[in-house]
Amino acid sequence: xxxxxxxxxxxxxxxxxxxxxxxxxxxxxxxxxxxxxxxxxxxxxxxxxxxxxxxxxxxxxxxxxxxxxxxxxxxxxxxxxxxxxxxxxx
Length: 90
Known about the structure:
The chain is mainly alpha-helical. Helix content is about 70%, strand content about 10%.
């Protein structure tokens, strides 16, 4: 009878140890890998959107000569290409 109680106690402790070790492995190894992968996917999407926006602005400046970016109801930002004046050396 005492041997059965010890055997059950050992099995319960072993199961608890396995559960704790699996949680520790997930927190220290698997979690950071998943988070790093999500971060790189987010960064690549952000960089793609930023590149698309800049290409669209440059294309519109080349086609229309300006870009009008509305900031709120009463304000807007107008971008035009800058061409510096050439000074003549005499």
